[in-house]
Amino acid sequence: MTPARKRRLVMVSALVAGVGLATTLALRAFQENMLYFYSPTEFVQNGVPEERTIRVGGLVADGSVRRAAGSMTIEFEVTDHAYTVPVTYTGVLPDLFREGQGVVARGRIGENGMFMAENIMAKHDENYMPPEVAQALHAGKMRAIERAREGFPDDAGSNGTAVSDSGYAGGY
Amino acid sequence: MWLWFHKLGSPPHFYRTAGRLIPWFAIPAALLLVAGTLGGLVIAPADYEQGDGFRIIYVHVPSAYLAMFGYVAMAIAAAVGLIWRMKLAFAFAAACAPVGAAFTFLCLATGSLWGKPMWGVWWDWDGRMTSMLVLLFLYLGVIALRGAFDDAAKGDRAAALLAIVGVVNIPIIKFSVDWWNTLHQPATLSKLSAPSMTMDMLGWLLVMIVGHMLFFAAVVTLRLRGEVLLRERGARWIRGVDGRA
């Protein structure tokens, strides 16, 4: 390799390394400000900025959805199985919205401590399968839980763990 | 190996070789894309959660893959051009950029169409979407920067630097769904683990990915021949070219 080429190779490598390092440092420094949504734990424990539009993400808690009769208003709780945040929303919900499903709510904290959502987005996970497979996995999982209750702890989780009942994998 | 490399770098030789290669990319690409479209839209089963709506994955994922693959290919060619002053490498980077930009746009557009029914929004500023939008702007920047110079060689070098710098965005796109909270779900396909998709759906997705890759190869090779002609205009060997060679 000629000296000129070698010099240019070193310069291009240094450029990539330098920009990579700078970006890594910048992303780490801005980690706090680059939050797309708060989990309920962060929301409750660390507190969130009031008077500012933020997002809260988690699962719609089972049995928490309450619809007001004769209006489009809905109340539910967003949970990460450690803490919950009560949310209220008026408007059209995405089709995938349901209890146990991942959700991201955008809005701000109201005076009564409720999170007033302006917008509700449903999350879905990265698993794709035909309905029959999903049913079979679900049935398998239920059987495993049954058997675990009856005293075969080794079987629990060995069957059908590829799919979580929540339909929500990771994200916070 | 080096002889082959040098021969490939010679414009007349490359022009002829590329002309012979195009049908080998284009014909299988057409077959796979037709088969994959039928398979994905008709034969593959509907998803348990998203129903038929998930079928847009058969365009969305291949275009996302090629948007990123095209950028890395362009940046590597740009680096080879900068370091070894290889003209053909700059021509390849120039031929790649609009095709990659088109796939990036396709990925964003199909993602948006997918997002509205499933998430409930056309767009939101999460890590995956924002970094993908940055990729589109990088492509457009590279194209514009090359065009902004009257001296083509200077334009090539400036655009090459931008292309190389922009490569940092690629791992950000890839890992955005793991590093941050995002609306977008994590990867379905990954080298290290089993895909989170059943075979009757996955098979057609792989057919579509290979089909898109071959289509990309055919279009870039076609464009690269055009670039070579444009850059070599006035050279003696071109007088023998009648468009069919």
List keywords for this structure.
heterodimer, A: 172 residues, alpha+beta, OB fold (Dihydrolipoamide Acetyltransferase, E2P), 3 helices, extended, disordered C terminus, B: 245 residues, Four Helix Bundle (Hemerythrin (Met), subunit A), 73% helix, globular
Short overview:
With 172 residues, chain A is an alpha+beta fold. Chain A has helices spanning 3-29, 40-45, 131-149, and strands at 54-60, 66-67, 73-79, 84-90, 102-109, 115-122.
Could you describe the largest sheet of chain B, including whether it forms a barrel?
A: none
Contiguous helical run count of chain B: 8
Q: Give the CATH level 1 class of chain B.
A: Mainly Alpha
CATH-derived architecture of chain B: Up-down Bundle
Q: Kindly give the count of domains of chain B.
A: 1
Spans of chain A of 5+ residues with little confidence (pLDDT < 50)? 155-172
The tally of domains of chain A stands at 3
Q: Which oligomeric state applies?
A: heterodimer
Instruction: Tell me roughly what share of residues is in helical segments of chain B.
Output: over 70%
Q: How many strands of chain B? A: 0
CATH class of the largest domain in chain A: Mainly Beta
In CATH, the topology of the largest domain in chain A is named OB fold (Dihydrolipoamide Acetyltransferase, E2P)
CATH homology superfamily name of the largest domain in chain A = Nucleic acid-binding proteins
- Alpha carbon gap, first and last residue of chain B: 25 Å
Largest interface summary? A-B, 46 and 41 residues
Shape of chain A from CA axes?
Answer: extended
Order of helices and strands of chain B: HHHHHHHH
